[in-house]
Amino acid sequence: MTRLNAEYARAIDDDRLEEWPDFFAESCLYTVTSADNYRRRLPVGVIYADSKGMLKDRVAALREANVFERQSYRHMVGLPALLGERDGLLRVETPFLVVRIMRDGTMAIFDTGRYVDGLVEEGGALRFRERVVVCDSSRIDTLLAIPL
Amino acid sequence: MTRLNAEYARAIDDDRLEEWPDFFAESCLYTVTSADNYRRRLPVGVIYADSKGMLKDRVAALREANVFERQSYRHMVGLPALLGERDGLLRVETPFLVVRIMRDGTMAIFDTGRYVDGLVEEGGALRFRERVVVCDSSRIDTLLAIPL
Amino acid sequence: MTRLNAEYARAIDDDRLEEWPDFFAESCLYTVTSADNYRRRLPVGVIYADSKGMLKDRVAALREANVFERQSYRHMVGLPALLGERDGLLRVETPFLVVRIMRDGTMAIFDTGRYVDGLVEEGGALRFRERVVVCDSSRIDTLLAIPL
Fold first, then answer.
1. What pLDDT does B145 receive?
2. For A135, which of A113, B18, B45, C24 could close a Cys bridge (C-beta 3.0–4.6 Å)?
3. How many CB pairs under 8 A join A and B?
């Protein structure tokens, strides 16, 4: 679990986005929402992908849009809280903080929040069946340059 | 220890403040001080509670004062350093960083510092006998909206 | 590994810089570079020390230059990714975030990046044979007040 989180963050921060979908199970859900929307069970407004294919499409779109690398990110992933397990699905919540580093060297907190995850073992490794990224701020950058 | 820290941070960030006193032993000490005061062994100036009842009172006061939720927090808790054990008391120091998220979405570092903890086992679980929150900055918000 | 990182960060943040060289093996390399330079395999431009003696000299120089303590730092060290082991050398990458706290209480992100480490066991403890500090930002403070 810790290893999965470490490798997930590292793949993104190293700009190896093409590897990002592989952290997910074949049948999966990835969404980005705000804490407010999550609490009120409102539909997610920012990002929604419910198949590995959609994750791959998203990476392809990002690559096309961002011909020139303009910024980078640094994920700090916190201590996981194990919430339970049922039918092989492990429920975990993990806080995160992402810093954005602009090309001129300026650094700022890009986002904080928590990953609300459902993990399964698939092909001998732990994978995300579900990763709901719940951002603390309601002002999520809708152009989200990278996966969170 | 890691689990205790993860659950402690999560309870606060999830705004389940009523659960916060339960992370402490029956007989306990919770203080918030600055690194300067801590180094000079000056009396703590910000927050001092030496019973579970005082922790509960503090939460009650916070609830009364903050009728409307105005901001949220995100605790990032670092790697613990185990300093020693004596008579069942475990001495641990753990760095932390807290980000404040305002209602308009603005995020800023609220505080950094270290927890200087004394842990005991009570009722089958690890609890804080002592949690001294040593803030790096001397400019601690005296209105401290939440526990650190 | 986690313990070494915790103690390394703690020694620096506690201003026990004299202990810093002891986290390294007798024969060692410590450099600070930017992600851009690292990727292009350009020579490091910021800090380079290839012996424990150079690390000690650096601390001595810092002590002379900084007679008065003006600021402090807080290292948050993330989850390590184990990259491999060969001939007793353990390759690990670990993200970090450093916050600088000025004397007036202002806090700001000082740096983020990753440690690219080669670890060996020496004298019964894990030590850094190599620690390459790869900063995300290219605008590294060349007056770097402290080790990263």
1. 63
2. A113
3. 56
Report the C-alpha gap between B26 and B50 in whole angstroms. 10
Return the amino acid letter for B52: K
- As a whole number of angstroms, the distance between CA C111 and CA C148 comes to 9
Q: What is the pLDDT of residue A141?
A: 65
Mark yes or no for CB contact A9/C78 under 8 Å: yes
Token representation of residue A103: 């090309």
CA dihedral for B112, A38, A75, A67, sign (positive or negative): negative
Give the pLDDT mean for B15-41.
92
Q: What is the DSSP string of A43-70?
A: PP-SEEE-SHHHHHHHHHHHHHH-SS--
Do the chains contact at A95 and B75, CB–CB below 8 Å?
A: yes
CB contact under 8 A, A6 and C79: yes
The structure's pTM equals 0.91
CA distance linking residue C116 with residue C76, whole number of Å: 16
Average pLDDT, chain B: 89
- Render the burial of B98-108: b for 16+ CB within 10 Å, e for the rest: bbbbeeeeebe
Greatest CA separation found in chain B?
49
Distance CA A122, CA A56 (A): 19
Angle at C52 between CA C7 and CA B95, to 5 degrees: 15
Rounded to an integer, what distance in angstroms lies between the CA atom of residue A125 and that of residue C77? Answer: 25
Tokens 């070494």 sit on residue: C4
Ranges of beta strands (E only) in chain C are 24-34, 47-49, 71-77, 81-86, 89-102, 107-122, 125-135
Chain C contact set for A101 (CB, 8 A): 112, 136-137
Strand partners, A23: none
- Token look-up 């927090």 returns B73
Cα three-residue angle A25-A33-A18, rounded to 5 degrees: 40
Burial of B144 (0-12, 13-18, 19+ CB in 10 A): middle
A76 with A94: CB under 8 angstroms? no
Mean pLDDT of C47-62: 90
Tell me the C-alpha to C-alpha distance, in Å, between residue A23 and each of A9, A118, A123: 10, 12, 11
